[in-house]
Amino acid sequence: MNTKKKALKWLLILVCVLLACMFFARTLQTITTAKIQKISATRGKLEDKIAVKGEIRFSQGEPFTIEDARSLNIIVDKVMARPGYLIKPGDTLFTAYAPEFDSELAKIRVDYEKKVRELTVEVAGHLRITQESEHNRTYNQVLSTTDTYYNKLFLAQAAALAADYTLPEDIAAWGSDKQEAGASDAPAQAQTPEPTAEAATPAPTAQPTAAPAAGEASASPAPTATPDPEVVRKEKLMADLKQAMQEAYDAKVAMDAATDALRRIYMGTSPVRRTGDGVFDYIKKTDGFREEIAKLSRQMLELEEKKIALQNIRAPREGWLTEFTLKTGDKYDGSKPAYTLSKPGETPVFCCDITDVKKPITKGMKAVMEGSDRELTITEVQVASDGKKYAIIELDQETLSALGGLSKLMAQPQNLTIVYRASRTTTLIPASALRSGGDNKHYVFVVQQSWGGMLSNTTYTVKKQDVTVLETSAKLVSLEDDLSYVEIADREDRTLSDGQAVMEYVD
């Protein structure tokens, strides 16, 4: 009996030892055997997202130089536009002032006053008038009224320039009596020009308020519309012009009356005694005096015209403002273009450099800009003269608005993603399952399964299989080989070799 107990005891000990050995053997196998994840290849068209930089481009635009600034330097006062604006004819791009204007005008006025003094002295030297006379007073009246007239004439011409109004050639039509009589070209009856569109915020309009309930008095009067500053300005200019024209007309009437009185004295048709010598010379000098005054007036008007033109720099035509670097306070002398407009009817485009992209980018592929879900379409693929390759994306007005406006897009290059999709169906595997060998060769490890006996576990080994890579993406690889019938090793925990035993990851 004791013998049986001893045998049973040793049998139990043997079983425990065997179990322990099997446990430790299994544990050792788990530790030493490479672990893999078995995957299956799929069939489909490879897709990829390709990051590129997109820059707004136009074809060669038309530069504009402000010629008047060559003779009268200007300083930028206020900038009304910036690159990326769609400009309409007459839009104000920037305002400016000419600090040299006053000094240049002063020079001409000095010459004018000098001529007046010189001619007055010369004429007076030929008039031997020894005592006060009607002739003397008439002569002085001619000088005074002539001086006044030409000053008033210049002021009226300058006011007409400011109001963008063409004066009637006949000064006799400038008087209020002529205007009230229905002169078609009088400013009182002239059609005030419509204000041009400017790249500025429009004047606010009155906001409607809720009507008071029945039986209730309104707590406050209804708001009135805010006057349009441009309309107010033009009305003020026209009023100033009308007044200046009237003053010039009155001065002309006074000058003509004084001149006529002097001529009648000279011709002997006046009861006033003629005081002889020098009157004829006076008349000749007066003609020269008027010519000199007219010449100086033209110079001042030309200067005034340049000043007005330079105060508001307006666009000559429609187009995208592609180049504009002037800032407030900048000096501009007309030596180079001030701005550039795109060609009429031209559409801005995203130009994306795809020179280093290995995949074939073609017309019709889609793209998305960072920060937007707006789907864009590649309209053209171009190869430049230097060999660089570009994907072109045309941008219409609706698309530009959806992307935040052209001005924003031009500020810096934008991040875009081209959505690539292969044209053919191939075998697809994860990029992590592809192995690389020398000479640009590639392979995968195919998992082979061996069935053990009743008391043995199933074992796995890997076999190296060469493959032909067609395309790659960040996550997938397109293969020419059909691997749909095999399982592939992926995400191994150590380096594998051909024929090596492996085991699956155990969750």
- For the terminal residues, how far apart are their CA atoms? 49 Å
Q: What is the overall shape?
A: rod-shaped
Percentage of residues in strands: 15-25%
Number of helices: 8
**Count of structural domains:** 4
Largest sheet: 7 strands, antiparallel
- Indicate the percent of residues in helices: 25-40%
Total strand segments: 25
What does the oligomeric state look like here? single chain
* Radius of gyration (Å): 47 Å
Query: What structural class do the secondary elements suggest?
Result: alpha+beta
Q: Low-confidence segments, ≥5 residues, pLDDT <50?
A: 127-132, 179-186, 188-222
Overall pLDDT: 78
Q: How are the strands of the largest sheet arranged?
A: 14-13-17-3-12-16-15
Give a description of the structure:
The protein has 507 residues and is α+β, with helices and mostly antiparallel strands. The protein has 4 domains: 27-46 and 425-504, Beta Barrel (conserved putative lor/sdh protein from methanococcus maripaludis s2 fold), CATH 2.40.420.20; 49-55 and 347-421, Thrombin, subunit H (Beta Barrel), CATH 2.40.10; 64-97 and 314-341, OB fold (Dihydrolipoamide Acetyltransferase, E2P); 101-190 and 230-303, no CATH class. Helix content is 35%, strand content 24%. It has helices spanning 2-32, 101-126, 134-162, 176-180, 229-267, 279-311, 397-402, 406-411, and strands at 34-40, 42-44, 47-57, 62-64, 74-79, 86-87, 92-97, 312-314, 319-323, 331-332, 339-341, 349-353, 366-369, 375-377, 380-383, 389-394, 414-421, 426-430, 435-436, 442-450, 459-467, 469-472, 476-479, 487-490, 501-504. The strands form 5 sheets. The protein has a 7-stranded antiparallel β-sheet with strand order 14-13-17-3-12-16-15. A 6-stranded mixed β-sheet has the order 19-20-21-25-1-24. A hairpin with an 8-residue loop joins strand 20 (442-450) and strand 21 (459-467). The longest helix is centred in the middle third of the chain and has 39 residues, at 229-267.
